[in-house]
Amino acid sequence: MTVVEVARLHKAYGARVAVRDISFSVAEGEIFGLLGPNGAGKTTTVECVAGLRRPDGGAVRVLGHDPARDRAAVTASLGVQLQDSDLQPNLRVREALALFASFYPRPADPDELLDVLGLGAQAGVRFGKLSGGQRQRLSIALALIGQPKVAILDELTTGLDPAGRRDTWELISAVRDRGVTVLLVTHFMAEAERLCDRVAVIDAGRVVACDSPSALTTRLDAQQRIRFVPSAPLDDAQLAALPGVESVSRHGDELLVVGDADALSVLTTYLARAGVLAHRLRVEQPSLDDAYLALTSTHAS
Ligand code: ATP
Known about the structure:
With 301 residues, the chain is an alpha/beta fold.
């Protein structure tokens, strides 16, 4: 069942077009990531899904409802954690949760949620006194207090240390295991790889790829990067002319040969015939980072 449907979304701020043409759909129980460089249009997209902004064109549906028209129906089933969420500094953690709980017909038990999020000991602490990681956990708790069917989480681990980030990933997996569909905005490839079933890579207001993290990297699997230090001089032009080799470059005494999936066997056969050994031989497979960089123009604004 499709829970979130975004079709040909368009949104501009005055003359600045933030979202040009974004379409994707999120199935029930999925963790779906929006990945892309700064200013790509991710936050604008999730704000349209949350009903916080009205699209200029295209359609958004959350559980069949239009968030811009049917705010009440969408709000009841949606939990939102947006970037830089701020609360009154004097508000205590449990008070904040109780306040948010009062907005929903069937809220979760605030104390239980605090325990699950590792904030039990901070229940009486004022927001202004929380650490960055604790604020982040509280913002996740506030997104989940209404027992939403869909949770939107925007850069939820930005500013967390590696341990805090890993804890948060476990938490989000647990949230999904409880049946919540998650729409996640992230800058971190590792986060997308670890958490997301599928990822839409967004660049300059458009979806440039939409697939599982492993499928995105497999698209580049055809390419290999082979590094080695030859035991005797080699002619770069001859190497570059080998079938399947795309480029040859030198980095100090190391050679970098980039080529297709057959390049390694072609290269080793060539080296064996030439009587040259390949010292410190390494073959690098592409990562989601490489896929992402290949798909996006990093200077997009
Ligand atoms: P980031 O990763 O930096 O959070 P993003 O992918 O979430 O970026 P958006 O925040 O959606 O991108 O911004 C998309 C574009 O719209 C950017 O060029 C941004 O400067 C512009 N923009 C966003 N919000 C506003 C606003 N309220 N008024 C004017 N322009 C805006």
